[in-house]
Amino acid sequence: MNARFLRNAFILFVVLGGVFLYGLIRPFDRDDQVQIGDRTVTSHRAKVVEGGKEDTRNVVVRPSPEFLIEYAFGDGLQGFNILRVKADGTGEYSYWDQASDSSRQKTLTFELSPGELEEICGKLNQSRFMTLANEYHGDVTNGTQIAITVVTGHVEKEVFCDNHFPVAVVTVADYLEKEVIQPNRNNS
């Protein structure tokens, strides 16, 4: 009975150890499907990550008079949809209309309230966006790119993602798609 217990304990130890090691190795060696708004994109393993020259880790994003956020989503083949929101709450969204026979770019303008600007800043701070590196490059030649630029006070932070999307970028992009772009597209 004692030998049987030891054998079962050994088997359990080997299985749990294998699961543990698989869990450690797998996240570094796989592609993930991530949801951004109503689109699902693939985030590939980062091949290159480039930090910035300026340390923005302790910067808190606030809707200062210089505040600006620009968010671009797309690819080199089909073009980029670009959102710009300024400190006064004016927003502009330029996008490629795929619904018509010929693809053409349209522009939508809208106004955000001071509370909505505060919510955007809160999402940027909550996600720790300002701590990200400046560039992330996945190990593929085609795919999706996202660029987000934030200006707060006299600090500018730009993050460019080429087929690799850190959680903070996905969080901010998904928020902008669902809470800023979609409601204003639906109202136009």
What does this protein look like?
The chain is globular. It has helices spanning 2-25, 114-127, 167-186, and strands spanning 32-36, 39-43, 46-50, 68-75, 79-86, 90-97, 104-111, 135-138, 145-152, 155-162. Residues 24-29 have low confidence and may be disordered. It is α+β, with helices and mostly antiparallel strands. It has 3 helices and 10 strands. Strand 1 (32-36) and strand 2 (39-43) form a beta hairpin. The chain crosses the membrane at residues 6-25.
SSE layout:
Elements: H1 2-25, E1 32-36, E2 39-43, E3 46-50, E4 68-75, E5 79-86, E6 90-97, E7 104-111, H2 114-127, E8 135-138, E9 145-152, E10 155-162, H3 167-186
Parallel strand pairs: 8-10
Antiparallel strand pairs: 1-2, 3-8, 4-5, 4-9, 5-6, 6-7, 9-10
Helix pairs in contact: 2-3
Keywords: Membrane, Transmembrane, Transmembrane helix
Organism: Blastopirellula marina
Protein name: DUF4340 domain-containing protein
* Count of the separate structural domains: 2
- Give me the number of helical elements: 3
Classify the beta-strand content into a percent band. 35-45%
Which whole number gives the mean pLDDT?
86
Helix/strand order, N-terminal first: HEEEEEEEHEEEH
CATH-defined superfamily of the largest domain:
Mago nashi
State the helical fraction: 25-40%
- Going by CATH, the architecture of the largest domain would be 2-Layer Sandwich
Largest sheet properties? 8 strands, mixed
| Topology, number of strands | 10
Residue ranges: pLDDT <50 for 5 or more in a row?
A: 24-29
Radius of gyration: 21 Å
Overall 3D shape: globular
Rounded to the nearest angstrom, the distance between the terminal CA atoms is: 75 Å
Instruction: Report the CATH C-level class of the largest domain.
Output: Alpha Beta
The largest sheet has its strands arranged as: 3-8-10-9-4-5-6-7
CATH fold-level label of the largest domain: Mago nashi protein
Q: What structural class results from the helix and strand content?
A: alpha+beta
